[in-house]
Amino acid sequence: xxxxxxxxxxxxxxxxxxxxxxxxxxxxxxxxxxxxxxxxxxxxxxxxxxxxxxxxxxxxxxxxxxxxxxxxxxxxxxxxxxxxxxxxxxxxxxxxxxxxxxxxxxxxxxxxxxxxxxxxxxxxxxxxxxxxxxxxxxxxxxxxxxxxxxxxxxxxxxxxxxxxxxxxxxxxxxxxxxxxxxxxxxxxxxxxxxxxxxxxxxxxxxxxxxxxxxxxxxxxxxxxxxxxxxxxxxxxxxxxxxxxxxxxxxxxxxxxx
Length: 257
Fold this sequence. Notes:
The protein is an alpha/beta fold. The protein has helices at residues 2-11, 73-86, 130-141, 159-171, 181-187, 215-245; strands spanning 33-36, 66-70, 94-106, 112-113, 122-125, 147-150, 177-179, 195-207.
């Protein structure tokens, strides 16, 4: 709450995006995008913590404006029966997306490279789905990491963690330590030049709106509608303020209750 108020006061943003904001009921949201994994529509459906990873039961999905599933085009097609069974009743669009590596970037510098040129690498992850990161790395390089060091999701990296990773990479003859951008932020200045992160691009795939229906088109329409409502409200408030300062009666049809 304090950070949000400070951001609004200093930066006057037009748009605020909340990560994991779906459960923040005190915040008035204009759009709710619900992120789901393929397993959430299968064996993980409606499995609330501690039985699964969900923070709320399926009834909460009524608040969604759209569903976002992290899966490629082929996976989306295979998942379509589960999407129809689980999500169709909510009457909201379902979009697919995936993050694709485009290269490597030094964690502590601006240097970028295409890959490790066939050299071995050590993969370090502190994310919720380390297996997916490993699969992404293996598909990008064409070979698996020499070792995958898995930390718990949201792990707070220490200087000792960074030193241990660099030392192990050297012992294994690795060209570098590869981590996710999420982990790179936490490792930060504790890293050495052997630490690299993926450069990622976001690619949207098929949706339930039909072939060729893009998330960007849906989003632009929603956002334009919100901006029009915002402009109407600002005009209404300005007119009310002007009438109030002029000590004039409210216009017919106004309701300031």
